[in-house]
Amino acid sequence: MSKIFGTIVILISISCSPKIITNPLDLTIPSRANLYYEPFAIIEEDTIDRSLNKPIGQIEIKDAGLTLNCNFITIKKLAKIEALKLGGNCLVITEHKKPNQWNTCHRIKADVFLIDNAKQYESEIIWNENRKLEISDFKASIEKRPFIAATVSSFRYRVEGKPAFPNKYKLFVETYFDCYASYFKHTEFDSLVLAHEQIHFDISELYARKFISRIQKEAQNLNEFLAKQETILQEVERELQMKQDEYDSEVYADKNKQTIWNSWIKKELDKYDDYVEKTLIVNKEK
């Protein structure tokens, strides 16, 4: 089963970026920035056992002045990118300053670690063709849950621009699986149920690609994007939920249709393969 819960997140930030300061503590560890996929842990409370784990780097993200691109999700994403460059797979936030009347940005200090069990700390999975869901990714309680399993997945997007390129902005779309909202009850059919839930995640990815495809076709510049984004989002979100419901309805009624849906999602994702990176340049109207 899939649930969306209206969790599509819109992050629009058209401005300069925050100031990032990195301090590598171990230069022998190679960068992980070019790895195609691996688990990455973001721990928002400093609970890591430092007697067993030593930091390999430090990161500080500050307000650069007149910075709007600094909501907490974006700040964590920027910190993750820098942590991967330092060779880490775990970011432990040691200080988090929230926006106030003098500063509109989230600001953090964090230590970077390379740990053996990053997967157990993951709170979300970003869709990647090489990263299939595992039962351990479903971390919500199963108590009083009505179904065998439930996948909570959706997509979010943001627009970023840089002062050096005032007429070009970039749209980023990201499909994610919420680990702590998704649950899985063990049965003798675990592998079949897991395969079913993976298709729900894949359907979310498909509609993320459809969203960016529509933006490309219907919004020729930034002004059109800003004017049309909400309508396009609502329409794609509605289609996504209908498709998720249709999938469950058909397979629950006839388990043999699972194979048909497996083939269907593969063909649909291939059809939108041009949008697998889910990024788009949006020009400002001159």
Describe this protein with a few key phrases.
2 domains; globular; alpha+beta; 4 helices; 5-stranded mixed β-sheet; 286 residues; 7-stranded mixed β-sheet
Fraction of residues in H or I helices: 25-40%
State the end-to-end distance: 46 Å
For the biggest sheet, the summary is:
7 strands, mixed
Indicate the radius of gyration in whole angstroms.
20 Å
Number of helices: 4
Compute the number of structural domains: 2
Order of helices and strands: EEEEEHEEEEEEHHHE
Mean pLDDT: 87
Helix/strand structural class? alpha+beta
Estimate what percentage of residues fall within beta strands. Answer: 25-35%
User: How many extended strands?
Assistant: 12
